[in-house]
Amino acid sequence: xxxxxxxxxxxxxxxxxxxxxxxxxxxxxxxxxxxxxxxxxxxxxxxxxxxxxxxxxxxxxxxxxxxxxxxxxxxxxxxxxxxxxxxxxxxxxxxxxxxxxxxxxxxxxxxxxxxxxxxxxxxxxxxxxxxxxxxxxxxxxxxxxxxxxxxxxxxxxxxxxxxxxxxxxxxxxxxxxxxxxxxxxxxxxxxxxxxxxxxxxxxxxxxxxxxxxxxxxxxxxxxxxxxxxxxxxxxxxxxxxxxxxxxxxxxxxxxxxxxxxxxxxxx
Length: 267
Hints:
Keywords: Membrane, Transmembrane, Transmembrane helix
Organism: Fervidobacterium pennivorans
Number of strands: 4
Distance between the termini: 149 Å
Transmembrane segments: 45-64
Strand content: under 5%
GO biological process, one term: DNA repair
Number of helices: 10
Radius of gyration: 54 Å
CATH architecture of the domain at 101-161: Orthogonal Bundle
CATH topology of the domain at 101-161: DNA polymerase, domain 1
Order of helices and strands: HHHEHHHEHEHHHE
Protein name: Competence protein ComEA
Structural class: mainly alpha
CATH superfamily of the domain at 101-161: Photosystem II 12 kDa extrinsic protein
């Protein structure tokens, strides 16, 4: 097959960026001459190859508008992903923003946000401050399981404040608890006195030979244990012969008997 060296030199001027008319004519003549020199099989191959080149260029070459649309879509997707990533990073940073924990008022859940503090150590802190309210952050090292190393990790996130108010509040709570207990005791004693007065007024004495466990507990100074001891005594030794014999029951002495004298009978 001939090559381009067979073209006249005057028709091969590429310096001005376009072909001359005679050069185009020479190209046509070149391919015509080359085609005529091909065998039948070579011509068939040449036609098929040319058809494939034209077909691929027409049907598979993407248009400019299509390429532009794909590039724009890719840019929008990348921007969306970037915005989502930045939003996620911002949320993650907000989640781990450290806060200052007040040792004397923080809940177990709040204490567990401190580095190195799990459920067991958080409970230990709460139990410790019930008996010994924190007066300064360093007191945290007095809690079992929390040493200097753990304290160094969390010292920037803890504080102790308003100790006077806390001590006063604890004192008020203690006084209130004591007053409530005293009030309950006084009410119980008064109820017993009223019950005894009613028994005396009605002259209803309890027969210690037949009384049940519940009835015996109505007597002053007789609880469940002593009531059961009275029943065990009369089961083992037979009925009481007189009220003084009750002093033979374990746990009932002269002092208790004086309270019972007017309230019991053996008949």
